[in-house]
Amino acid sequence: xxxxxxxxxxxxxxxxxxxxxxxxxxxxxxxxxxxxxxxxxxxxxxxxxxxxxxxxxxxxxxxxxxxxxxxxxxxxxxxxxxxxxxxxxxxxxxxxxxxxxxxxxxxxxxxxxxxxxxxxxxxxxxxxxxxxxxxxxxxxxxxxxxxxxxx
Length: 151
Description:
Blueprint: H1 2-45, H2 49-54, H3 62-68, E1 74-85, E2 88-100, E3 103-113, E4 119-125, H4 136-145
Antiparallel strand pairs: 1-2, 2-3, 3-4
């Protein structure tokens, strides 16, 4: 009976260790995805498009597309979050501020991540009351980084 207690204790300890390692890996993935997304936003904000392209997992020629868009400017980013759900860091959120008609426009963005934790899609959501696709800067952003202009 005593041997059974020892075996159960060891099995329980191993199970606990496995859960803790899994959680540590998950937390590391969340932190990594957030840092990579912040680096991407920082590169866009600084207009370092070659660097931004290397930090983005989606298929886009950032420098060529941005140079074609007039008055495209990411002023700031905040509250970048990556979420661990269903066994992966697949989605997240951020607050983005664009320059629109020389005024700041704050929007919510939904982020999807590649298996390497790099931003793969960053979709800017039109603010409440604004018709989807009506704000040219958001339409341009979503064409480049979300896969379509009407998000």
